[in-house]
UniProtKB/TrEMBL annotation:
Name this polypeptide is given: MmcQ/YjbR family DNA-binding protein
Pfam family, one: YjbR
SUPFAM superfamilies, sorted: YjbR-like
GO MF, one annotated term: DNA binding
Domain of life: Bacteria
UniProt keyword list: DNA-binding
Length: 123
């Protein structure tokens, strides 16, 4: 895998859409992935407003977890604009070869936070 944003998007897309009851649509110009009822659980961000970062944006359990992650590994995690105040985290995909198992784990965690309980409990 390269740091090519299109290749990274395709890899993220395949993983996100493999989760139950998910779909993709553009949201504010970025590919977004959502579960039933239109609740987003992930976004792919590439050079948002010229920031130069390619990342996966996912939900965390809240601001405390977000702060802990950023403090523990500021080269991997960051607080994304707009979604950061709501506890979302940015996971950099452009620094080195992404750890796709780690990406999968975060997609699943974020999906569970967004999915209706009836669906999340089954999967």
């Amino acid at each position: 895998m390269s740091s090519n944003p299109e290749a990274l998007l395709e890899a993220v897309r395949a993983r996100a859409l493999a989760l139950p009851a998910t779909a993709e649509k553009l949201s504010h110009g970025a590919p977004g992935f959502y579960v039933e009822k239109g609740k987003f659980f992930a976004y792919f961000s590439d050079d948002h407003h010229g920031c130069g970062i390619t990342a996966l944006l996912v939900k965390t359990s809240g601001l405390e977890e977000q702060a802990m992650l950023i403090e523990a590994d500021p080269d991997l995690y960051y607080r994304p604009p707009y979604l950061g105040p709501y506890g979302w985290i940015g996971i950099r995909l452009d620094r080195q070869e992404p750890d796709w198992e780690h990406v999968n784990d975060w997609l699943m965690k974020s999906w569970r936070l967004s999915a209706p309980r009836k669906l999340a409990d089954v999967f």
